[in-house]
Design goal:
alpha+beta; four-stranded antiparallel beta sheet; 4 helices; about 35% helix
Amino acid sequence: MKHTDRFLIGIVIGIVALVIAAFAITLQRPKASYKTDDTPENVAHNYLLAFEQEDFERAYAYLSPDLEGYPADLNAFMHDVQANRWEFGYERNHTLNIEGSRPSGEFTLVNVRETTFYNNGLFESQPSVSTFTLRLKQLDGQWKVVKTLRHVST
């Protein structure tokens, strides 16, 4: 075997090993899971996770009837989500992270950072970061989403 052939085989074996390692790391990442509903941050996390997992019944349960435009029932809520898929984060590659919270009178404001990834070609990716705030209020001992406040992208 020529030296060039051995070198080429080494490169191919190295690439295959990297691909296998990437798959192994991806498969070992823990799946997102629901948290207890005892804090506003956890409720915000669970609300957003319910959307990610398309568990609309659970997401609807986190909404306060005081919410402007509160859907009359689960079917109306699901229709709203389907009609406004972009607003709810579908059809775009993004991650959401709870950034903290602060009390504001009878409400708690939970800040969420959304990082959206845009692919401009095979080797080009451009992230865009924006933030929004979920306003939660405790009703009958349970934290409920009362409003979503959007902020400017950075």
